[in-house]
Amino acid sequence: MPLLPATTARAILQGFEALGLDGGALRAEAGLDAAALAAVDGALPSECFTALWREAFRQAPREELPTELGFAVPFGAFGAVDYLASSSATVQSAFHSLQVHFRRVGSMRLELLEGPEGATVQVLNATPFEGVHLSDELTLALFVARFRLKSRGQGFTPRRVRLSREAPARPTRHPLLLGAPVQFGCRLAALELSPETWAAPLPDADPGLQLTLRQLAGQLELGATGSDLELALRARLRAALPEGDAEATSAARALGLSERTLHRRLHELGTTWRVVLDGFREAEAERLLAAGGVPLGELALRLGFSDQTAFNRAFKRWKARSPTQWLRSR
Questions:
Q1: For residue 268, which phi and psi values (nearest 5 degrees)?
Q2: Are residues 195 and 146 both part of a single domain?
Q3: In CATH, what number is assigned to the domain containing residue 239?
Q4: Same structural domain for residues 239 and 121?
């Protein structure tokens, strides 16, 4: 079951409401409550997004709805990632920043193919899910909308837009909305950009903000390169452990799963809740110790240990040395 960021669900809902759709009906159909949407590092099952699209198309049965949504989602709805791109010096550097961001936070990836004739930005989904073609179309529309907005009259016009969805039975407004020829039924969704567009400067370039956001993104690393489920669990643990909550029951509830289903899915991935919890604590301990400035007693509480002694025992089991000895060896 692919898991997608709660941030995306919040942004999509804002966009649908900007288009005049009934947000309450959308949330009810997808089973989304305030707690599920509010989690900063939250993740939601892809079925929630499928339900959102189903209700949206019921309210607005238009072929162009995913592209319309991309232009309706307000700037800033995706938080730091919007500013990460817009503070870049050029369109090229913005897409490189986005490529790094997506590699860190989700199952979607960007592949950048650069050459003397321009560049192609391809959207890759490591774990396909129902409605992935809608996600692909929305992603490309978001790129066009944001870069068009941030170019401030200098223009952001793709040479061609490729969509992975099947070609509609009748002509649509896609070329008009996207400002470029549109090719349907492609293996991968992509934007084709001319050399001039790829190298175009961005008026809101801010090196200081760009550096700050990159540093923050690095601090959000969750110490895992595994499945979407494990990454989602680690995100929940970062918020839950300081509250003393290291229980699988709470994590499962936060992801909309039963505890039994969570254990079964972890078993299918060849791991267990205890392994995920222990692995996150070890990675988080390394990150916090290396960053410095956090007393060991406070660090122990952040990781959900009862006291510093319990943390020291766990750290010795992980590294065969105390936290102080480990820091000295670095």
A1: -65, -30
A2: yes
A3: 1.10.10.60
A4: no
What does the pLDDT read at residue 145?
Answer: 94
* Same-domain pairing of 16 and 80: no
The residues, ordered by sequence, that sit 6+ positions from 151 with a Cβ below 8 Å of its Cβ are 200, 202, 203
Domain check: are 246 and 204 in the same one? no
Residue 238 sits at φ, ψ, to 5 deg, of -60, -35
User: How many distinct structural domains can be found in the chain?
Assistant: 3
Query: What is the model's pLDDT at position 318?
Result: 94
Out of 61, 81, 104, a domain closes at 61
Residues 106 and 178 in one domain: yes
Cα distances (Å, whole numbers) of residue 322 to 275, 298, 301:
21, 16, 17
What gap in Å lies between CA 263 and CA 273, rounded to an integer?
7
**Residue 67 identity:** T
- Domain with 235, as residue range(s), is 221-329
Q: What is the pLDDT of residues 70-106, one digit of tens each?
A: 999 999 888 778 888 888 889 999 998 888 777 665 5
Q: What per-residue confidence (pLDDT) applies to 2?
A: 59
Q: So what's the pLDDT on residue 47?
A: 83
Cα separation values, 79 from 20, 196, 208, 213, Å: 22, 28, 17, 11
Each residue's pLDDT tens digit, 162-186? 999 999 999 999 999 999 999 999 9
Q: What is the pLDDT of residue 205?
A: 84
Positive or negative, the CA dihedral 94, 99, 101, 107 is positive
Residue ranges for the chain with pLDDT beneath 50 = 1, 224-225
Q: Same structural domain for residues 204 and 263?
A: no
pTM greater than 0.85 (yes/no): no
